[in-house]
């Protein structure tokens, strides 16, 4: 993801990288199954709206980060989305995580 961010930055885009809880370099091991990730993405969008004064916002997200970017209450404010390996319906993700974490133990 960093290579893509460097490329976009070289083309004049401002970049804000967030590391969701229990993903990437984050130290927390508890996966909140989409609840806190959605709030983190919303908070990042609100931060950009406050600090960038009307500059168009785009989101790039993989897996749960991408699913969090599909939130209906922020999607109208986003100029573009680049999504990879995304669960469109978070319930499908919950079923997979639940079965791996709890049913196969």
From TrEMBL:
<dbReference type="InterPro" id="IPR029058">
    <property type="entry name" value="AB_hydrolase_fold"/>
</dbReference>
<protein>
    <recommendedName>
        <fullName>Serine aminopeptidase S33 domain-containing protein</fullName>
    </recommendedName>
</protein>
């Amino acid at each position: 993801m960093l290579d893509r961010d460097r490329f976009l930055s070289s083309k004049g885009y401002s970049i804000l990288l967030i590391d969701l809880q229990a993903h990437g370099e984050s130290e927390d091991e508890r996966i909140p199954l989409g609840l806190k990730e959605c709030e983190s993405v919303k908070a990042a969008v609100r931060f950009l709206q406050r600090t960038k004064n009307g500059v168009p916002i785009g989101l790039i997200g993989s897996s749960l980060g991408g699913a969090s970017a599909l939130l209906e209450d922020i999607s109208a404010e986003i100029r573009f989305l680049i999504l990879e390996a995304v669960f469109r319906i978070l319930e499908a993700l919950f079923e997979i995580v639940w079965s791996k974490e709890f049913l196969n133990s």
